[in-house]
């Protein structure tokens, strides 16, 4: 169970959606020489913040594994850089009039990397295995009544009741189809060879080797159903806080986390291309609803009144991450409630709330002391420092603790914190709220539970009329604005960069929208 929880929480950090945030088209400077060609081969060097916990992407989910999985494996469906559902192993599909039966027509002639044929039986096996092992998709697959394989190229799912977000769930995360001939054993699916030393998929690149803490090497799959990649290899270089300098030195070709302070310079330099990831995700402050002080609504209300989101945006992100309003990102207009928000900063009102609730200042001049857990990297810590200053103005001392992803997950889910900050994609369907604020939701790090919210989310899930669904989600947001288990901070914006001689990276060349956003099958290096 612990492994399941950690997997789901780590998924929260994921950022998987494109927004048009500009790119470098003018300016001067000299791009680094790069290491994209070695021995006559075209090699893409990609920064990766850490080692994957497993090469079975359906078992131990983490950000690092996902990046690699997008090139090793394929899903039945996937999402492009605009968060649209597009074909992957399923070439097309139909949904019955009663919204219960989904018929997927699979690509023909697809082979696993070891030469074995891919068939509908692999799809059925994968989903059954996820249910059996309680993988991340198990909750969504709980809606399934039957799964059938009429022939090798057809897969049919029938649901117990309609599920509006069902296709989105199959396309988003932890959705890789696994080879039945390698995983249908008595071995643990997280430690068998196919999950550790010899992963086999149907994706555009094949596994070659892994050197822990150093690199992961993939080579092109000439039989890839989407067309043979033009580059020969992808090497994931394990790098942490040195990634930006490594990119500028030419030791990386694709930087997936450009420091906020360096974005403008790269955008202004024609030797580089810059892309931005933002829509559907934001920074949120989460309260531990079981905390000694944060379980008190008055404290949560006071913290909300202390926040100046414009200042957090300006000082914490150089203005690159816009202030966030409301209790769901506005990228889906039909599900967004603009009237549900925390209001403007009110320092005196915040202090009055604390005093009315019986809090008194200690010898240091604080009403209370709270822990504040954030991730290392990105703009998390910078935003947290601004928030710390704003809370100090109302007499709350926030102690910031910066943690690597795994340590953050362990501590937050254990409930060993008062406040934390998290981001993550909140789509592709607003049913994502179920994970974040539904009772027992895998991403509900606040331990929030409201039966009215649960009921509204359940109703929204089983109807297909968008307008009616939207009303339910708007009601949920109104309740959240009253209960305040979370607070909106700033909209996420993550910047990506590559030298101008590289093309075909979906988050940078946004017209590449017919593959997964981290699929490198269309990358070209014209150096």
What is the strand and helix layout of this fold?
Blueprint: H1 2-11, E1 37-38, E2 41-48, H2 63-72, E3 77-79, E4 85-87, E5 90-95, E6 101-106, H3 120-133, H4 138-141, E7 144-151, E8 154-159, H5 166-172, H6 180-183, E9 205-211, E10 215-220, E11 233-238, H7 243-248, H8 263-267, E12 272-277, E13 282-287, H9 297-306, H10 309-317, H11 347-356, E14 368-375, H12 380-392, E15 396-403, H13 405-413, E16 419-422, H14 432-437, H15 451-461, H16 466-483, E17 486-491, E18 494-499, E19 502-503, E20 524-525
Parallel strand pairs: 2-11, 14-15, 14-16
Antiparallel strand pairs: 1-2, 3-4, 5-6, 6-8, 7-8, 9-10, 10-11, 12-18, 13-16, 13-17, 19-20
Sheet-strand content, in percent, reads 15-25%
Rg, rounded, reads 23 Å
Number of strands: 20
Give the low-confidence spans.
Answer: 1-33
Tell me the overall shape: globular
Helix count equals: 16
Distance between the termini: 49 Å
Structural class: alpha+beta
What is the arithmetic mean of pLDDT? 90
* Helical content band: 25-40%
**How would you sum up the major sheet?**
5 strands, mixed
